[in-house]
Amino acid sequence: MRDRLTSIDPAAVAELETTDDTPDHSLPPLPNIEEYEQVRMRLAPNPNAPYHLGHARMPAVIGTYKERYDGWMLCRFDDTDPETKRPDLAAYDQILEDVAFLGFEPDEVLIASDRLELYYDHARTVIDAGGAYTCSCPAGEFSELKAAGEACPHRDTPIDTVNKEFEEMVEGVVSSGERVLRIRSELGHDNPAVRDWVAFRMVDTPHPRDEAKSYRCWPLLDFQSAIDDHLTAVTHIIRGIDLQDSAKRQRYVYDYLDWTYPEVVHWGRVKVDEYDVPLSASSIRELIEAGSLAGWDDPRAPTIASLRRRGIRGEAITAAMVELGTSTSSAELSMSWIYSNNRDLIDTEAPRVFLVREGRPFDLEGATSPAKVPVHPDHDDRGVRRLDPRDGVLLEPADVPALGESVWLKGLGCVVRGEDDILSLTDDGIEVVRDGSVDVIHWVPQGDTQPVELRRPTGTVTGLAEAGLSSHGTDTMVQFERIGFARIDEQTEQTVAYFAHR
RNA sequence: GCUCCGUUGGUGUAGUCCGGCCAAUCAUUUCGGCCUUUCGAGCCGAUGACCUGGGUUCAAAUCCCAGACGGAGCACCA
């Protein structure tokens, strides 16, 4: 068919191929976009810790949709729990930096703890509409009533009383645990998660932000987020499956206020392979406080800051998150995906360097001049590294040949191992490598080296690199040949490098 | 216990709405070949999947029923 068309009209074939159905984006289209003038979305981070890998999904996916639909993106810090999920003042900026690192810029930034009066106002409207009541049941008791589908005695409180009692909450004359404001939904609702949920509660602990430290009456996510989504004209809510029942609860608020609920997309759980540390801000924090991790950017931590320090580009992470899509089923993210993306990004620029870990010294006989090895095998114009083996070489223990066996020292030639740790150059040509009988290994000259500390997710190793390593500046990505790519983190009398990936 | 959601190779994803062109896409991983004085990259190739059982149909990954398995929620957390 195609062959026939080619013979009749080659231009038509070319057009078929360019307009082909290959999508530019791997993300599924957002629902009902034609009904909105502009696609408006929000990131809703809780600023209680810097981002970990799981958090990256939100900015990566929403940011990609923003670019695709020329949409609008809000970053709204949902910091309405001064106690259990106590905000970390440093995290607000760190999260914004993490988002920028992933490649996106919010069109607007809002902080929920600046907006309490707004939430109170809307609560008053809901109360007047008969949509909420104050309740002083202990949490456990209410939970039992709820499970049974029965009303608590406060459900019939007159609106005037509810108003008065809510104002007391706002004024802060009520203490934590004494009273809450509940949204009236349906006690007979099939889903117990939806029945008369809490919209506001008292928190005795002051908020860490000065702007908010005097408030004691705090909204819960379902209420705060519901109000803000409407006020900022969000059209598409994109979030995790853990909030799947949230929409069902929030719709009651929207009904009382006569608003229309946005479109919702939920994605499933993500797990990441290769890490022993769980993908949870609280676990990471515990490990840091216990001293098991050096900080949020420890190479063993599954955080954005850590990947960044290892020289993983934000684009590589974003691409993997986008590839993960928005399926509601659980997914496992392979780090190899991110590594593969990153290799594409850094391979051309990364200079090659020899690093020998736990080197074993050998004398070398027969060498008459320094070896020349390319800085980058694909770019001759970047020159060569000169390594002089005449004072002996260091080899990695795993590379040392057995007595009488040969190896090929990269850039130098074939050597055979004799008695007394002496290597002798042979006159073998490269054919011995081609036919597979001799392995090619890296090496460094004894006495002309730069000490290296290589910090990896699996632990730190030390070694000696060729002296030229010291000429590369901080942040340079190098490839330690046969070991992998690493980012130079610190250059002093020794080099500290963070391992990225093979 | 109640409610909701999901299940395509090791991993992720396309296809499922509107059954046939699906002996199932693309990527990653692993393995092999070519090339390359390493690794990586590049090129070529291989391995590998429709949860199970019924039903409807000329035809089912796709529709229906049942089951299994997995995930989420039922917080005065987000």
**What is the total tally of β strands?**
27
> Portion of residues in helices?
25-40%
Low-confidence runs of at least 5 consecutive residues = 1-24
CATH fold-type name of the domain at 352-501: Ribosomal Protein L25, Chain P
Q: In what range is the share of β-strand residues?
A: 15-25%
Largest sheet strand order: 12-25-26-27-23-24-13
For the record, what CATH class of the domain at 352-501 applies? Mainly Beta
Structural class: alpha/beta
Radius of gyration: 31 Å
Shape category: elongated
Report the CATH architecture of the domain at 352-501.
Answer: Beta Barrel
Span between N and C termini?
A: 45 Å
Continuous helix count: 14
- Most strands sheet: 7 strands, mixed
Integer average pLDDT: 91
Describe what this molecule looks like in 3D.
By secondary structure, the chain is an alpha/beta fold. Among the domains are: 104 residues, Glutamyl-tRNA Synthetase, Domain 3 (Glutamyl-tRNA Synthetase, domain 3), CATH 3.90.800.10; 76 residues, Glutamyl-tRNA Synthetase, domain 2, CATH 1.10.1160.10; 150 residues, Ribosomal Protein L25, Chain P, CATH 2.40.240. Strands 12-25-26-27-23-24-13 form a 7-stranded mixed beta sheet. A 7-stranded mixed beta sheet has the order 21-18-19-20-14-17-22, with no helix packed on it. A hairpin with a 3-residue loop joins strand 18 and strand 19. Helix 1 crosses helix 2 and helix 3 packs across helix 12. The protein is elongated and about 100 Å long. It binds one RNA strand of 78 nucleotides through helix 6, strand 6, helix 12, strand 11 and helix 13.
